[in-house]
Amino acid sequence: MSPRSPPKEDQEECVSGAEIIAEALKMQNIEYMFGIVGVPVVEVAVAAQASGIKYIGMRNEQAASYAASAVGYLTNRPGVCLVVSGPGLIHALAGMANANMNCWPLVVIGGSSDRNQETMGAFQEFPQAVRSSMYGRPGACYIDIPGDFINLQVKKNAVKYVECCPEPPISMAEETAVSKAVSFIIQSRKPLLIIGKGAAYACAEKSIRRMVDQCGLPFLPTPMGKGVVPDNHPCCIAAARSRALQFADVIILLGARLNWMLHFGLPPRFQPDVKIIQVDICAEELGNNVKPVAALLGDIKAVTEQLLDHLNKKCWKYPSNTEWWRELQAKIKSNEEASKALSLQKHLPMNYYTVFHHIREFLPKDCILISEGANTMDIGRTMLPNYHPRHRLDAGTFGTMGVGLGFAVAAAMVAKDRNPNQRVICIEGDSAFGFSGMEVETICRYNLPVIIIIVNNNGIYSGLDGDSWKEMTKLGEPSTWIPPVSLLPNAHYEQIIPAFGGKGYFVQTPEELQAALKASLAEKHVPSLINIMIDPQSDRKKQDFHWLTRSNM
């Protein structure tokens, strides 16, 4: 007597909750997942890899969430950060907050404790989460996954997946508002175009480049707006930033916000009667701090095309021989001369300007620059040019320290897929490096094309030199005399990376810096770390205003 065959329904193929999660993400064109696995999300990471999603295991959830958010900025589709509940999610909150402030799409998935099956069905929320992270002002979304759902088996033919969430709809500004904006632009004597990272995220570079070329407008990029129009364009007035902001009579904001980074748009950094034309995808942002004379709500690229169409019909171009241009060009010349004089100083230890002068000579034009740290980031922004959009990531609107290596991992993963010969250069202060330094192991584990450059001044803002440190050790207990801004002097951070297979370089002179840069760029398949010692008291050149606007009184 032959054994009885099991019922047909028992033979149907089953899938796990983890596999459903992975397939749902794949259906949404998710390409990258960053995280740290633990119970109950290990199976989710395994399933994601099996589905074709690239999983990158990080060393801290904070760095993982930073990396996933940077992918959202670089690709216009959210990256995913996978964490366990409790402390794992708490660590990821920093990246979620950073993504919201920068307006970058991010999906965070956390595994929680088991729940009753009556609550299952949460996975239909994936398309909504992806859409919510991308539409309108992009930002972070969180999905909590019951632990028992991850390993639950269900019949494959019973699972219904939702089609891929389409790209956000393109919205355009009201024509009357566009006409009003154009009338102010044409009447302006001292116009200024400010290009924000919102313009970079909107992929509006071709439209904005045409506007600059055809209209001859002076433009100022915000830190992550650099490269939307190349920094070497003759209309770029970044080297006269303070002068341009202070005396412009009409300012066109393209995806930039009048927050602390632009000194709130208020005197004394701006004219009291400056006329603001604001272009933004988010209605809540319009009129924040300064009421615009024209508020253009819509997609940055589409609205730029609208403006350009109106300006072309009027055959308008801002003259290149105005007093405004002469004023800006004179300030550019004086500031560049001051920076050059500092960069050519021969004394040791080197200063910031000398270091960046030599780095600039070796940087590939298409490299992705990651930058964080106080003076390291601020001075580097002025001295290291960007020629392509979305090729600079930094501390951003939230001023977040610790983003650097997470951003570098994300940029390198995207670069490997899109441009295998592209290099990622991560330039950090020694304090900033300390936030996520163990991600060096991640970079080496995945053999990512990253060069880490630490500009080491022995501290936060400033530190102590070795001799001063030795003298102060005579004062007794370290907690009573080590200045709060000081770190251990002459720390050999470059010795970390060889432990994982990378190459480290300790640099004290311009010649050693040049040699280290040459060697690192020649090693296309080995990550490297260059630790550059500078004068602990090195600072920015004299500024017209303090970098942080504390009061407008």
Automatic annotation (TrEMBL):
Q: Its Gene Ontology molecular function terms? A: 2-hydroxyacyl-CoA lyase activity; magnesium ion binding; thiamine pyrophosphate binding
- Identify the cofactor(s): thiamine diphosphate
Q: Which SUPFAM superfamilies match?
A: DHS-like NAD/FAD-binding domain (SSF52467), Thiamin diphosphate-binding fold (THDP-binding) (SSF52518)
Domain (Thiamine pyrophosphate enzyme TPP-binding): residue spans on this chain = 376-532
Q: Does the keyword Metal-binding apply?
A: yes
List the record's Gene Ontology CC terms alphabetically.
peroxisome
| Catalyzed reaction equations | a 2-hydroxy-3-methyl fatty acyl-CoA = a 2-methyl-branched fatty aldehyde + formyl-CoA; an (R)-2-hydroxy-long-chain-fatty acyl-CoA = a long-chain fatty aldehyde + formyl-CoA; 2-hydroxyoctadecanoyl-CoA = heptadecanal + formyl-CoA
Q: Where is the Thiamine pyrophosphate enzyme central domain?
A: 178-307
Q: Where is the Thiamine pyrophosphate enzyme N-terminal TPP-binding domain?
A: 16-126
Q: Which CDD domains match?
A: TPP_BZL_OCoD_HPCL (cd02004), TPP_PYR_POX_like (cd07035)
State the EC number(s): 4.1.2.63
One example of a Gene Ontology biological process annotation: fatty acid alpha-oxidation
What Pfam families does the record tag this protein with? TPP_enzyme_C, TPP_enzyme_M, TPP_enzyme_N
Task: Tell me which UniProt keywords the record has, alphabetically.
Answer: Lyase, Magnesium, Metal-binding, Thiamine pyrophosphate
Family from the record: Belongs to the TPP enzyme family.
Q: What is this protein called?
A: 2-hydroxyacyl-CoA lyase
